[in-house]
Design brief:
The protein is of the alpha/beta class. About 45% of the residues lie in helices and about 15% in strands. It is globular.
């Protein structure tokens, strides 16, 4: 019987937010595809078996330095960690909450990219995958900081993908629709009518359902793999038809 080709065989991948949601699924899929995975999160309890954990704040320079040192040669980076402050009107959002969302969702992605670059350049190239959102292309209500941060990710990957192409460092993003994760459930719980909010969000997608974490992780695996060798500065929308509806 022919051995299945591992899409990330012998690659070392750093994944932030690896203890839950999309990051957890992404770490598990990377392991299944033969990668050595360095998982970064505030809590290591949810990381899949086989992940080498680095516990710490993803916005902290010390956390980035420890992960980079642990990895050694870096072939791929998935900046999956993110936060939201949904359910708050745009004129009621505090400056502190705005800054925290951008610190985790945007600035940290740039920090991790910069931190991984020397190793990727030394290895002859690499792949970086960030997480945007379908909301970056359509907008929404009561989630201004999160949506604006995901729009910034779209611009960041286009800029970084263009600038780093001569180094053979590819930078792309996935833009998920509403995915059945703890973040989604937490956001829905803050709605005035959580059940109605879930129904509205689910039915806003052409496929009339929420996405599953593995459906996003599969897209991230593709972008990290050599199968996506001609893709950089691009955003793959995996949104159940949200942007088409």
């Amino acid at each position: 019987m022919r051995r299945r080709v591992m899409r990330l065989d012998r690659k070392t991948i750093i994944i932030t937010g690896a203890a839950s949601g999309i990051g957890q699924a992404r770490a598990r899929r990377a392991l299944e595809e033969g990668a050595r995975v360095i998982g970064v999160d505030l809590n290591g309890g949810g990381m899949p078996d086989g992940v080498e954990p680095v516990i710490g704040d993803v916005t902290a320079a010390a956390t980035i330095a420890r992960a980079v040192e642990t990895a050694g040669t870096i072939h791929g980076l998935g900046t999956i960690a993110g936060i939201s402050r949904s359910g708050v009107a745009i004129d009621e959002l505090s400056p502190e909450d705005w800054d925290q969302v951008f610190a985790v969702n945007v600035k940290a992605c740039w920090q991790w990219l910069v931190g991984a670059l020397p190793s990727m350049r030394a290895a002859g190239g690499g792949s970086v995958v960030m997480v945007a959102s379908q909301l970056a292309f359509g907008g929404g209500r009561l989630n201004a900081a999160y949506i604006a941060s995901k729009g910034a990710i779209v611009s960041l990957v286009k800029t970084a993908g263009f600038e780093l192409a001569p180094d053979n460092v590819r930078v792309n993003a996935v833009a998920p629709g509403a995915i059945d994760t703890p973040m989604l459930n937490d956001g829905m719980s803050r709605a005035e009518d959580p059940a109605a909010a879930r129904d509205y969000s689910r039915n806003r997608h052409a496929m009339k359902r929420f996405g599953q974490v593995d459906e996003i992780a599969n897209g991230v695996v593709y972008l990290l793999s050599d199968e996506a060798s001609f893709s950089t500065g691009s955003v793959i929308t995996i949104d159940g038809g949200w942007t088409a509806a």
